[in-house]
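Hi P.,

Sorry for the delay on this. The queue was packed all week, but I finally got your sequence through. Input first:
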Amino acid sequence: MHSSNSTISARIMRPGLFLAIVTAAQWLARKINERRNCNALMELSDEQLKDIGLSRGQTESDVHVYSRN
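Then the structure:
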């Protein structure tokens, strides 16, 4: 029973570790979403890109971020 108490107290003493894990998970989710959006843009034809006000060059740069929500 003593080892169980020490494990619980160790978890309580490391709130920064939990925050770091949550932050890393949020960053990873954001990067996955950005990649998904980039892939969706790359599938559009030049005419479709023109309809939404973008050129092929703009889709290949990180300057214009398009989010499909």
